[in-house]
Amino acid sequence: MRKGRVHGVRWSIIALVMFVMILNYLSRGVLGVAAPTIMSQQGISNQQYSWITGIFQFGVMLQPLSGYVLDGVGLKLGFALFAGLWSLLTIAHGWANGWLQFAGLRGLLGFAEGAGQPASMKVVATWFPARERGLASGLYNIGASFGAVFAPPLVAWSIYRHGWQLAFVITGVLGLIWVLTWLLWYAPVGSHPRLSAVERAYIVDGQETRLAGAGRRPSLARLLRSRNQWGIALPRFLADPTWGTLSFWMPLYLVRVRHFDLGQIALFAWLPFLAADLGCLFGPTVVALLQRRGVGLIDARRGAFTLGAVLMTGMMLVGAVRSPYAAVALLCLGGFAHQTLSVTVITMAADLFPRDEVATAAGLAGTAGNLGVLIFSLLLGSLVGSVGYAPFFVVLGCLDLFGAIIVWTLVKKPQ
Q1: Domain 3-187+195-209+217-410, CATH
Q2: Distance of alpha carbon 261 from alpha carbon 265, whole angstroms
Q3: pTM given for the model
Q4: Where are the domains of the chain?
Q5: How far, in Å, CA of 97 to CA of 412, rounded?
Q6: Which of 114, 311, 327, 404 could in theory staple to 337 by disulfide, Cβ–Cβ 3.0 to 4.6 A?
Q7: Is a pLDDT exceeding 50 seen at residue 79?
């Protein structure tokens, strides 16, 4: 097989997915960075803000529904519909006034954006052989981190130039441009006009036959009875509150506790997400190194998850250190560790479930993750005024250790 003709279309597909995930998480991160300004201008309290973020997470928790739609109508139409919807809703944020309007828009946005992870995982499961799934998943998850990286400078620039509203409009318009590009370029593996026979064979031959699927509709009842489903869902429930805290609460923490101004937010608030980008690549690298030493795929993923969970314990010290820059450094460690383990457990959906139900399985795991974010965010909003942020960082540093135990004990390796 000639190597030069193997690489091509599938990497352009994952590049498109990575870009749309940048926009997906950019629109999420814009609110978190703009929150101090919006809350001050519109008189929104901490508790009301926790409801705004909580309703967003409730919307994202409908991922099994979006995954079911994607498995049913296909990636081309399904991804375009959801991306178009979240782009229009993002633009609408620029005209929101009051916490109730923000809450309504965030709930709808959460539902639309929740399709991003199941759709991306379905692309990985469909377009990549087993040996490349970890890297492909890491690349599109880099998009998630990069979206959060770009949010602080974009919001700071928008506020200085026109107002926080401009950041939402720019992000939404870019999303609509992506939808058009996706519709023009994407086609299934079996019918993509730019896909060579060599690359098509490389993809198909490298995928497990047991994951080919039987062409049946995904069954939520069957998935909910699967121990593997719970084996990836419960660790997401424990892990995802870290990402929610970094995205929605970290800018407020840096402003109100560490006394950062808008300029310092623009300089420092993106660094934990840059570290998270490195974690997206570190997790698959650890898996590859373990496999070269003879460790099976599922055990290698468990090992990478466990390493990330151990690194996450550094988050316990964020509220204890005196230096604000040391706190930022520990938040960077948290972002790196989180994405190391998160991209690992997310990819396991494609390792364990057939391609005709992988989006639904990933959606169910995403629901568990966002339920964790919802509960944690509501607790933080209710208690932070009385107990401060430090206890919450301690909890975040411990949760993934329990997630690692679940991954090792509940996930059943395929025969």
Answers
A1: 1.20.1250.20
A2: 6
A3: 0.75
A4: 3-187+195-209+217-410
A5: 49
A6: 311
A7: yes
